[in-house]
From TrEMBL:
Source organism, top-level taxon: Bacteria
Alphabetized PANTHER family for the sequence: ARCHAEAL-TYPE GLUTAMATE SYNTHASE [NADPH]
Transmembrane spans: 30-50
Family: Belongs to the glutamate synthase family.
Protein name listed in UniProt: FMN-binding glutamate synthase family protein
Pfam families hit by this protein: Glu_synthase
Residues annotated as domain Glutamate synthase: 159-473
Keywords, comma-separated and alphabetical: Membrane, Transmembrane, Transmembrane helix
UniProt organism field: Thioclava arctica
Length: 537
C-alpha cells in the first residue's frame, strides 16, 4: 500500500495543487500560472496511466519521466562530470584536449608527469637517442605514384580522411578544405562526391569513388566513364580512391532516404530528387580481382594518369591476397592502398558492425604491408592508414609498422569544433559539424575553424618532428618496428620487431614457411575470383 502511495503521489499532489490554484484565481495572477503548470502535469499523469507504450510511466505517472530525462542527458553527465581524462569513449578527454589546444594554437604541455599507467600491459613507447636531431622543416611529404602514374602527388604524411558532404555540414566541409589549402595537405571527399563546398576552398582533394559512383554515375547507378573523366580532370583532384569498405561498417551498404536529399546533395552526388539514394554493398564495375585491376587501369587512363588506389577495412585476408595475385597476373598495380581500421568511423553504423566486424587498424595494416612485401610489390605501392590517429605518437607508430602516411577524420572534426556529443546521425549536432540544419550550421564560423584546422595539422607535424628528432631520425618515414616497445605483462616488454615483424621480401613468391599463416592463405587465393579454392578465409 505504501509503495502504491509513493508511485501515484506525484499525480495526486499535482491534481490537488491544480484544484487549489483554481480556487484562488480571484486573488492573484500567480494562481493562474500555478493552475496552468500543475494542470498540465496532471494531464501528463493521467495520460501516463492510460497509455500502453511505456510500462515505467504507466506504473510511475509523472515521476517516470525523470528516467527518460536522465537517460537523455547521461552522455553529457558522464563526459563533463564523471569520466576521467583517460577514459576512451571513444576518444579520451586528454586526447580531445590535445587536439583543441593545437587547433587553437595554445600551449599543449602538461605538468606533473604522465598520468598513463606505464607498468600495465598494453603501454607502448618509442625509444630515443642520446644524440637527438633538430629538424627545421616539419612539412613532411611522401610522393604517391607508381611506375604507371603520370601525375604523382607529393602528399603530406597527415591528411583529412574521408567524410562526405551530407554526413558533414556545408560549413564543416568549407572549413576543412580551406584549412587543407592553408596547410598544404589533402582533403578526402568521402563517397558522397565533390560538392560545391569542396571546390570553394581550393584545397587538394582525394576523390573517393564508392559503390554508388556519386558524381560519375548513370541513372541506374552504374559507372559513367565520361562523367568520371570530367570530375577527375579537375586540377583540384590529386588522387582517386576506390572505396571497397570502411572501418565503421565494412561490407555494409547504405541508403539515403529521399526525404533527406537536398538540392545541394543531389548536385554533389548526381542523383535525382525525390528518389531514395542507394549505396550498394559491393561495386558493379567489377566482380573479380582481375576485373578490379583493369578498372584501376581504366581510371588511371581516364584521369590523365593521376594516382589511383583503393581503401579497405581488412576482412577475409585471403580476399586481399586474391587482389595481390591479380596485380601479379595483370601487371597492373594501384598507386596506393589505404587501410581503414574498424575503430574508424565518423557517422552512424549498426552496433554489431561497429563493435564486431572488420580488422582493427594495427592488425590490418601489418597484414597488408607484409603481404605486399611477400609478393615483391611493396616498393611500388604506398600505404595510407586511418583509424583514431590524432597525435604524433599515433602517427609515428603507424609509420613504424608499415604505413607511408596517415589520415584522420575525427581529429579534424575536433579541430572544427566537434565535442563528441555523438549525435551525428540525429541532425541535431550541437556545434554544427554534422547537421544539415542551416541554423545549427551557423554556429560553425568557417574562417575561424579553417584556421584551427591548419593550426592542428601544423602543430601535430611539429610534435611529430620533435619525436622524430628525439629518436635520432631526420624523417618520420624512418621509424621502424624496433623503435617501438610494447609492454606485454606488468613486468615484461617486447621490441616492436617481435610484435609487428616485417616479413622477408618475396617470401610468398618463394613459398617460404612463414609461421604466421600467410602462406596457407596465399595458396588458397586466386586472381580469377574472390571465392576461395577451398573452404576458409
Amino acid at each position: 500500500m505504501y509503495t502504491r502511495f509513493i508511485r501515484f503521489s506525484p499525480l495526486a499532489i499535482c491534481i490537488l495543487l491544480t484544484l487549489g490554484a483554481l480556487s484562488g484565481l480571484i486573488l492573484t495572477d500567480w494562481f493562474l500560472i500555478a493552475a496552468v503548470i500543475f494542470g498540465f502535469l496532471s494531464l501528463v499523469g493521467v495520460n501516463d496511466i492510460i497509455q500502453t507504450r511505456h510500462a515505467i510511466t504507466r506504473n510511475y505517472p509523472i515521476l517516470g519521466h525523470l528516467r527518460f530525462l536522465f537517460e537523455e542527458i547521461r552522455p553529457e553527465i558522464r563526459q563533463y562530470l564523471i569520466e576521467s581524462d583517460d577514459d576512451e569513449v571513444p576518444f579520451s578527454r586528454a586526447t580531445r584536449t590535445i587536439v583543441y589546444q593545437r587547433a587553437k594554437d595554445i600551449e599543449d604541455a602538461k605538468p606533473f608527469g604522465t598520468r598513463m599507467r606505464v607498468s600495465e600491459s598494453g603501454y607502448q613507447w618509442i625509444t630515443h637517442s642520446v644524440k637527438p636531431r633538430h629538424i627545421e622543416n616539419s612539412d613532411f611529404r611522401v610522393e604517391i605514384g607508381g611506375p604507371d602514374c603520370k601525375q604523382p602527388y607529393n602528399a603530406s604524411i597527415y591528411n583529412i580522411s574521408a567524410m562526405s558532404f551530407g554526413a558533414l555540414s556545408a560549413n564543416a566541409i568549407m572549413a576543412l578544405n580551406r584549412g587543407a589549402k592553408a596547410g598544404g595537405f589533402a582533403h578526402d571527399t568521402g563517397e558522397g562526391g565533390i560538392s560545391r563546398y569542396h571546390r570553394e576552398g581550393g584545397g587538394d582533394l582525394i576523390y573517393e569513388l564508392g559503390s554508388g559512383y556519386f558524381g560519375c554515375r548513370n541513372h541506374d547507378g552504374s559507372f559513367n566513364p565520361e562523367k568520371f573523366a570530367m570530375r577527375a580532370g579537375d586540377p583540384q583532384v590529386k588522387m582517386i580512391e576506390i572505396k571497397l569498405s570502411q572501418g565503421a561498417k565494412p561490407g555494409h551498404g547504405g541508403m539515403l532516404p529521399a526525404a533527406k536529399i537536398t538540392p545541394e546533395i543531389a548536385e554533389a552526388r548526381d542523383i535525382p530528387m525525390g528518389v531514395d539514394c542507394v549505396s550498394p554493398a559491393s561495386h558493379s564495375a567489377f566482380d573479380t580481382p582481375i576485373e578490379m585491376m583493369h578498372f584501376i587501369a581504366k581510371l588511371r587512363e581516364l584521369s590523365g594518369g593521376k594516382p589511383i588506389g583503393f581503401k579497405l577495412c581488412v576482412g577475409h585476408r585471403r580476399e586481399f591476397m586474391c587482389i595481390v595475385k591479380a596485380m601479379l597476373e595483370t601487371g597492373i598495380t594501384p598507386d596506393f592502398i589505404v587501410v581503414d581500421g574498424k575503430e574508424g568511423g565518423t557517422g552512424a553504423a549498426p552496433l554489431e558492425f561497429a563493435n564486431h566486424m572488420g580488422f582493427p587498424l594495427v592488425e590490418g595494416l601489418v597484414f597488408v604491408h607484409n603481404t605486399l612485401r611477400g609478393a615483391g610489390l611493396r616498393d611500388k605501392i604506398k600505404i595510407g592508414a586511418s583509424g583514431k590517429l590524432v597525435t604524433a605518437f599515433h602517427i609515428a607508430k603507424t609509420l613504424a609498422i608499415g604505413a607511408d602516411w596517415a589520415n584522420s577524420a575525427r581529429g579534424f572534426m575536433f579541430a572544427v569544433g566537434c565535442i563528441q556529443a555523438q549525435s551525428c546521425h540525429t541532425n541535431r549536432c550541437p556545434t554544427g559539424v554534422t547537421t544539415q540544419d542551416k541554423i545549427r550550421q551557423r554556429a560553425l564560423v568557417v574562417p575561424d575553424k579553417a584556421t584551427r584546422v591548419a593550426n592542428f595539422h601544423r602543430n601535430t607535424m611539429k610534435a611529430l618532428s620533435e619525436m622524430t628528432g628525439a629518436a635520432g631520425l631526420t624523417h618520420p618515414g624512418q621509424f621502424l618496428p624496433h623503435h617501438l616497445l610494447v609492454r606485454v605483462t606488468d613486468r615484461d616488454f617486447k621490441v616492436g620487431d617481435e610484435v609487428y615483424p616485417y616479413m622477408p621480401e618475396g617470401f610468398l613468391l618463394r613459398e617460404d614457411d612463414d609461421r604466421f599463416g600467410y602462406l596457407n592463405r596465399w595458396q588458397r587465393a586466386r586472381a580469377e575470383a574472390f571465392e576461395p579454392i577451398d573452404s576458409g578465409v
